[in-house]
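Re: the pair you flagged

First of the two:
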Amino acid sequence: MAALAACGEVAPDAPSPAAETGTASPSAPSPGASPSTSGSATRISQFPASLQGTWGLTPNDCDRSRGDAKGILTITAEEARFYESRARMIDVASGADGGIAGTFAFTGEGMEWQRTMRLTPAEGGTVLIREDLVTEAGAPPVEGPLRYTRCPLKESVR
């Protein structure tokens, strides 16, 4: 997830060229920084249950019969899986807003990189906002924030 690309990795998980042309925020917090400006942060080693599930950048990403669901993001307790990459937590904290932020290690298509990002649930848990805060040199850029919608259970089964 160097960028939990709910599928926002250019080389590994490019949902679309437009989603991959952005740059990291110049005022990004350091790794392990609180995901929220309010409340205290707690370091975590697994993705919270509220973020787990399958998410899509577009409705078609939730249709597993399609071979072009490049905006798909599946989050388990241990990792975030994008179209062609995976992200694991390195130094991540949870915040009072139910979101998480920190550094993630990504792998995909024979490459490895790190990304600091924030994942925030919204709209009662039906939406996930992904913001890339700091990107390691050479990592695929992601324009953001990216807005994912939770996939219906019957359509998100792999």
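Second of the two:
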Amino acid sequence: MLDALITSKTRLKLLLKFFLNPANTSYLRGLASEFSESTNAVRVELNRLEEANMLESFFEGNKKFFKVNTQHPLFGDIQAIMLKYIGLDTIIDKVLSNIGNLEEVHLIGDLAEGKNANSIDLLIKGDINEEYLQKAIKSVENTIDRTINYTLISNKINDLPNKNLSLKIFSNNR
């Protein structure tokens, strides 16, 4: 449905890349390679988003890097739309809120890196009802047309390698 509203596939890829995980930064050629798009197509969309103040840029050496402007008035709204687009809002509402003593959930894998994917990979920490979790995931998968893979862990998520490639989507602050 979002494809009808945002007709540029490159723009949609950029919005996913930067708004799903605000920690993401990238440069023109890296994005063109990642998206398998021409540098010109990516440059045009980067310029539009930067002119709209949705992206900020900075230089490291001779490379111009881009990142999301989290201070933009529409940042929260666009991020919510991106989460809804990939189905995370449904997972949070229908699965995570009812599975027991949940401590944290992190999105990992391609989606955490801002790449569109057919599966959602989660790290889940807490004392939960795994039987309920499996049933709820099957129900949600039919709704969002994506598979959901999860790993239950007992150690701290922050102690994991590549923690910068994860995005916290739920935390039960005590």
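The helical segments are 2-5, 9-20, 28-35, 39-51, 75-86, 88-94, 130-144.

-B.
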